[in-house]
Amino acid sequence: MRTFPPKHLTILFTLIIIFFSGCYYDVAEELYPSSSCNTADVSYSGFVDPTMKSFCYVCHSTTSGPANGNIILEGYSNIKVYVDNGKLVGAIKHDSNFSPMPQGGSKLSDCTIAKIESWVAAGAPNN
Asked: How many whole angstroms separate alpha carbon 71 and alpha carbon 49?
């Protein structure tokens, strides 16, 4: 009867462990997260205002002073002026003839822009 040296048994045992431990259940949602952007029912208070606070108020609020083009986006009535004249969407989309915002920062994500555009298209309600 043939016997294998302990070194070969160790290698064989290790390969068997690796082979059988490599099997697992893949969860599609974890491997491929959803890249969809839900633009339905975007509200001013739930999304637009918090986004403005995060990206715009540092330069365009009542506390930032008269600098930055005297543009105040803090509060619904202030932002609505720039919604109505098209400057808000033009600036965040970096459209030509608009000063790209946030100035000196990265463009907002496509999903964030799509949500703001959806809110504007719905009439920019104060909700």
From this structure: 15
HSE value, Cβ hemisphere, 13 Å, CA-based, for 2: 3
> Which whole number is the average pLDDT over 123-127?
97
Going from the C-alpha of 25 to that of each of 14, 18, 30, 32, the distances in angstroms are 22, 16, 11, 14
- Cα 31 to Cα 20, 34, 57: the distances in Å are 21, 10, 36
What is the rounded average pLDDT of the residues 89-97?
Answer: 96
| Tens of pLDDT, residues 21-61 | 655 555 555 566 667 899 999 999 999 999 999 999 989 98
56: Cβ–Cβ under 8 A, 6 or more apart, which residues? 73, 101, 102
